[in-house]
Amino acid sequence: MRVRVAVPASVANLGPGFDILAMALQLQNDIRAEQRPGPLSVDAGPDAPAALNDPEHNLVTIAYTKSCAELGIPAAGVHFACVNRIPIGRGMGSSAAAALAGILVATALHQAPWDEDAVLERAAAIEGHRDNAAAALLGGLAICAPGVPAVQMAVSDELRAVLFIPDLPFTTHEARQVVPTTFSRADAIFNASRCALLVRALAIGDQAGLRIAMQDRWHQDARFALMAGAQEIVDAANEAGASGAALAGAGPSVIALTPLAPEPIVAAMAGAAADAGVAGQTMVLPPRNYGTRVDVVP
Known about the structure:
The chain has two domains: about 1-155, Ribosomal Protein S5, domain 2 (2-Layer Sandwich), CATH 3.30.230.10; about 160-285, 2-Layer Sandwich (Alpha-Beta Plaits). The protein is α+β, with helices and mostly antiparallel strands. The chain starts with a strand and ends with a strand. The chain has helices spanning about 60-70, 95-110, 115-125, 130-140, 170-175, 185-205, 210-215, 220-225, 230-240, 265-275; strands at about 1-10, 20-35, 40-45, 80-85, 140-145, 150-155, 160-165, 245, 255-260, 280-285, 295. It is built from ten helices and eleven strands.
């Protein structure tokens, strides 16, 4: 039996939505798994770090192995081939995509009785980011409220995400360490109100409302202090006409949302990065209102 999993990139912590809001983007990793005799093996692809060819160091196969253990099934006898397009360590959900892929391969190959929420809980237990996993699995804008199943909402197909992606990665763990664990009542009300405005703006296509809706007082300022040029790139995107801009996930990438021709925003973000001495690339992606696709060939 062969399984193909196509899992998209995602940007979590969207604006004020720390650990709550994430959006799927039209950029995907493709993972193929085939049952064959022998030990568990993985080909991470020609551009991947060599360490990812080791099943004990590749999060796809780690998640698969852990899922098989929960099912009481040996993890041997499967070969994985990966095509990784989501940049690693840039705030675009690469780790959540990898964990989700491994879990879904186990689900498909071994007919696990896991529903969407069970899959998300396992992804969160393995990788830690339920919001990224929810957006990747469900598509669109994922809303992750504690204690209840994640839900999804479609966003306008006219919306575009302009991303500046630095060449150097940044660990989510390091970025998370600087986020305050307590907040004032004023800041809590500020972010709660911006989350409500952001969901409304994306639901009804109120692009003009995104600028205010993407403001944040919880996590971005602390992270901007760690990431050279990030604040300047956000400001440049807004000044160039973006509807709103923010860190992508935990950074170091920056995301700007716009329904307009993105070229001036691309140029402004790239220029601000160059002025700050930050090397990287820009990417323009539409939202993805459908989630992960799993195909099984007997």
